[in-house]
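To illustrate the input format used throughout this study, we show a single complete record. The first block contains the structure-token representation of the backbone; no residue identities are included at this stage. The design step must infer an amino acid for every position from geometry alone.
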């Protein structure tokens, strides 16, 4: 950006020199307070300059043209590989088919203790809850 709207370059130099002083003696709170104040002033100055630059550009060439000038977009990067529908289908088919490897088993076998308990209780059913049964719990 071109700094042409009331930019004070001495303000940044003051901030930088004050920062160097603060780094030499970090216990000095007055230097820290002055440094924080100058940081705020520099940020505000940059914000005002950016806004006035954008206002100047939009008044001369319109919003979208000025956005393109101030913030140009980088060229889109495209992948050099191509993928067809058959390639995609083959990939998902290959990862979804079961294999004979024992390492690919997702579910482990049921432990013997649980199997014996399941044999004793052969069925499962829902019962209706009433106020009495809930209060007993």
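Output of the design step:
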């Amino acid at each position: 950006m071109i700094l042409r709207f009331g930019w004070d370059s001495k303000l940044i130099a003051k901030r930088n020199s004050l920062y160097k002083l603060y780094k030499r003696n970090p216990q000095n709170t007055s230097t820290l307070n002055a440094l924080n104040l100058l940081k705020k002033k520099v940020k505000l100055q940059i914000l005002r300059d950016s806004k006035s630059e954008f206002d100047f550009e939009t008044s001369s060439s319109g919003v979208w043209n000025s956005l393109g000038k101030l913030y140009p977009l980088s060229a889109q990067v495209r992948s050099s590989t191509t993928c067809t529908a058959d390639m995609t289908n083959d990939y998902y088919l290959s990862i979804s088919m079961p294999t004979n490897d024992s390492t690919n088993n997702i579910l482990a076998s049921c432990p013997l203790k649980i199997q014996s308990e399941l044999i004793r209780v052969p069925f499962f059913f829902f019962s209706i809850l009433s106020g009495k049964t809930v209060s007993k719990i």
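Structural context for interpreting the output: Residues 10-70 form one domain. The first helix runs from residue 9 to 24.
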